[in-house]
Amino acid sequence: MIKGKVALVGSGFVGSSYAYCLLNQGIANELVIIDVNHKKAEGDAMDLNHGLPFAPPMSIYAGTYADCKDADLVVITAGANQAPGETRLDLIEKNSKIFQSIIGEIMKSGFGGLFLVATNPVDVLSYATWKYSGLPPERIIGSGTILDTARFRYMLGEAYNVDSRNVHAYIIGEHGDTELPVYSLADVAGRPVRDLMAQGVGPNEQQLDELFVNVRDAAYHIIERKGATYYGIGMSLARVTKAILRNENSVLTLSTLLTGQYGLEDVYIGVPVIINRYGIREVIELSLSDDEMKKLHQSAKVLKKANQSIPVH
Ligand SMILES: NC(=O)C1=CN([C@@H]2O[C@H](COP(=O)(O)OP(=O)(O)OC[C@H]3O[C@@H](n4cnc5c(N)ncnc54)[C@H](O)[C@@H]3O)[C@@H](O)[C@H]2O)C=CC1
Ligand SMILES: CC(=O)C(=O)O
């Protein structure tokens, strides 16, 4: 069991899936669940506690913002999700207002740990959390493109019939419609995807393009079928939590404030970072192709414009 206290704000589809992952994987020994619908938080805590005879010890309870005071990590999954056909950026107005009040309440508790934001649009709301909290940027982490990267690795693994854990590839940029694949650096067990393609192994150029479109649009495809996505992001958030609480210095594609890297600044956007118990230790600057760099800048432009619409405090 990994020691640490996590406060989860928002116990809907995503929040409760994440909580279930923490319990199953023995990540954190204390979990407080906070939701505007306190009965839902209570119900989830009760339900999860009934799994304890089959899991590592953990204290799980429904609480209030005052319980964030001594948390190592506050994970925010509260707010509206996309209706079919809605984009993530369509959620800015509703969710930024919710964030303004939530972050204020959390900071009033005396909280001094890390934030992990998953609510959409995640890059914009990570930026808002940084602004509203007044904490150093390395302590505000957005889930960014960790889920998109997982989807990408899964689909590439299927295409090459190789375990997705042996596929090394990144999706970067906005967690949304302007994200991009870094095919120039993607490899399967050390063999570059571009070299494999030249040898006639695996997908051709057009198939790789189609594969990326399926990654980018995966949320739309799932929401169309079942109304929301939650298991993939639950696993992704649990992975980040583990990297933080175990001080792993792991490389994950997360949303972070850029301060000159990739020629960009004052924007939260998904890029590979090294993460540990103190937050974002370092942004990894990939040697992108000219086309990839252009697309990353285009994605950042869209996010910067969106950031202008968050209410200032
Ligand atoms: N970053 C990512 O990769 C992903 C992000 N998401 C996002 O996660 C968010 C949550 O999605 P779901 O769990 O499906 O929604 P949901 O509607 O099932 O859950 C939202 C929860 O937030 C609570 N809530 C609403 N306002 C609140 C407030 N002011 N204070 C405290 N709690 C509040 C609700 O009571 C509800 O329990 C959405 O914005 C969704 O788009 C979803 C999947 C992946
Ligand atoms: C909903 C969402 O952001 C996702 O599944 O990617």
From TrEMBL:
PROSITE patterns: L_LDH
Subcellular location(s) per record: Cytoplasm
The species this protein was found in: Paenibacillus swuensis
Subunit structure comment from the entry: Homotetramer.
CDD domains according to UniProt: HicDH_like
Residue ranges of domain Lactate/malate dehydrogenase C-terminal in the record: 145-306
The protein's name: L-lactate dehydrogenase
Function: Catalyzes the conversion of lactate to pyruvate.
UniProt entry tagged with the keyword Glycosyltransferase: no
Claim: Glycoprotein is one of the keywords in the record: no
GO cellular component, as recorded: cytoplasm
Domain of life: Bacteria
Sequence positions bearing Phosphotyrosine: Y220
Binding-site residues for beta-D-fructose 1,6-bisphosphate, renumbered to this chain: R153, H168
Chain sites annotated for binding substrate: Q82, R88, N120, P121, V122, D123, D148, T149, A150, R151, T229
UniProt main location, coarse: cytoplasm
Keywords: Allosteric enzyme, Cytoplasm, NAD, Oxidoreductase, Phosphoprotein
Active site, UniProt feature: H175
Top EC class of this enzyme: oxidoreductase
Annotated control of activity: Allosterically activated by fructose 1,6-bisphosphate (FBP).
Membership in a protein family: Belongs to the LDH/MDH superfamily. LDH family.
Residues annotated to bind NAD(+): 10-15, 35, 40, 65, 79-80, 95, 101, 118-120, 143
Pfam families tied to this protein: Ldh_1_C (PF02866), Ldh_1_N (PF00056)
GO BP, one annotated term: lactate metabolic process
Lineage: Bacteria, Bacillati, Bacillota, Bacilli, Bacillales
Pathway assignment: Fermentation; pyruvate fermentation to lactate; (S)-lactate from pyruvate: step 1/1
